[in-house]
Amino acid sequence: MRYIFRCTILTVIVSLGASVPSQGQTVPNDDPDLALQLAQPDFTLVALPTTLRVPRHKGAFRVTHRFTRELGNGDFGDLASDLFGLDNGAQIGLEYRFGLFKGTQIGFHRTSDRTTEFFAQHEVKAQSESFPFTISAFASIDGTNNFRDSYSPALGAVVSRTIAEHVAFYLEPIWVNNSNILPSALVDNNDAMLLGLGTRLRVRPTVYIVIEGTPRIAGDKPNVTQIGVGLEKRAGGHTFQLNFSNGFGTTLGQVARGGTGRSDWYMGFNISRKFF
Amino acid sequence: MTRRILLACLLSVAAVGCDEKLSSVTGPTPQLEPTLTSIQRDIFGARDLAGRQACTDCHSDVGRNPSGGLVLLGGRAHEQLVGRASSGKPGAIRVIPGDPDNSYIIRKLEGAPDIVGVRMPRGNGPFLTDGQILVIRRWIQLGAPNN
């Protein structure tokens, strides 16, 4: 497995080297992927990917932050005295994605529990007058302990439908292997089939409400379905999202393992920055 | 072409099935598997690398009276465990196929609060690891076959 991973990384690096424009070579600035999409301004919802394309040879950075203080623990005074969880620890994620080709992006996401995810996404079909959806193929693999243990590869599709400049809907069937980190000899199911559902609603010119849920429709289903809601503000190339979720998962392996409990809610935020 | 090769490569990585090694959870008994033969060999009948004593040190009728009336020698453990009532706790069944939570052997190995007597193995440990108990649980969950 480690050998395959190294080969893949080498392939990615070689491809990057081969595809990055040399000095004097320019990427056309009339690339439609550079334009802001008002209904779909960011590459993720709360944890799930969207179908937004990264322009060729451009990148984007994201920080995810999930405070580990359960909001329902104690009374309001307790919560306020902890500044709604900000005084407590958090699971932090750092992410970078890069537009390798037109419609193809790759990236990595590392969370502070030492899980590292590598992902790739390719747009298969774009929404148009003759086709109502955008469909992207998605693949990722995450590993715990700085990608040394418990690898969880995932394959799936991200299907979106945007309506004018106001709303986007998402349907994301994703299969996650080894979502149960016990050996398969000890469990009934070692995989999980997720059906990510989500929407982003533009309620003000630069303000959005984001909702997502990721029920496991087959396979291993520990804990509860992870749900997240967010209030988002777009400011230039930045997107700031204050979110509430019932789990800390931001990689697909983590999301497949579910949220911590139906009534466990945690505050968090995402900040993303486009470098284009 | 490069794009297709790269995409195929990434998809291939994701399509590779991953699994944890059983030995990663079985600790001092790296060969342990959820079969009675394996449990007999590595748990009932032998000390492990952590120094835990063999169950058959006490649960044997060779030259002694078996503790708790339970014999865990090879070839006899299945009929002594599966569906058999505990001699220590009235109403308790040593192994209930498919139901590890209510199998008394698991409760004794885990030191559940409702057991009669002491946690097994007797003494101050080392006890079975969580991973070793998971393997025994799995064998029971699979119907406790005589395999």
What this model shows, in words?
- The complex is a heterodimer of chains A (276) and B (147).
- Chain A is 12% helix and 47% strand.
- Chain A has 276 residues and is mainly beta.
- Chain A has a twelve-stranded antiparallel beta barrel.
- Mean pLDDT of chain A is 89; it is low at 1-5 and 7-27.
- Chain B is mostly helical.
- Helices cover 35% and strands 0% of the residues of chain B.
- Chain B has helices spanning 2-15, 23-26, 36-44, 77-81, 104-110, 130-141.
- The longest helix of chain B has 14 residues, at 2-15.
- Chain B is elongated, with a radius of gyration of 20 Å.
- Chain A binds chain B through residues 1, 4-5, 7-8, 11-12, 15, 18-19, 100-101, 104, 106, 120, 122, 137, 139-141, 150-155, 177-178, 181-187, 190, and chain B through 2-3, 5-7, 9-22, 24-25, 33-34, 134-135, 138.
Brief overview:
The complex is a heterodimer of chains A (276) and B (147). Chain A has 276 residues and is mainly beta. Chain A is built from 4 helices and 13 strands.
Strand order of the largest sheet of chain A: 1-2-3-4-5-6-7-8-9-11-12-13
Order of helices and strands of chain B: HHHHHH
Low-pLDDT residue spans of chain B: none
SS-derived structural category of chain A: mainly beta
Q: Calculate the terminal CA-CA distance of chain B, rounded to whole Å.
A: 52 Å
Q: What is the number of E strands of chain B?
A: 0
- What amount of the residues of chain A lies in strands? over 45%
What is the element string of chain A, with H for helices and E for strands?
A: HEHEEEEHEEEEEEEHE
Q: What's the end-to-end separation of chain A, in Å?
A: 35 Å
Give the number of DSSP strands of chain A: 13
Shape of chain B: elongated
The chain pair forming the largest interface, with residue counts per chain, is: A-B, 36 and 26 residues
Strand residue content of chain B:
under 5%
Q: Based on CA inertia axes, which overall geometry of chain A fits?
A: globular
Helix coverage percent of residues of chain B? Answer: 25-40%
Tally of helical segments of chain B: 6
Q: Report on the biggest sheet of chain B.
A: none
User: How big is the Rg of chain A?
Assistant: 19 Å
Rounded to the nearest angstrom, the radius of gyration of chain B is 20 Å
Mean pLDDT of chain A: 89
Low-confidence stretches of chain A: 1-5, 7-27
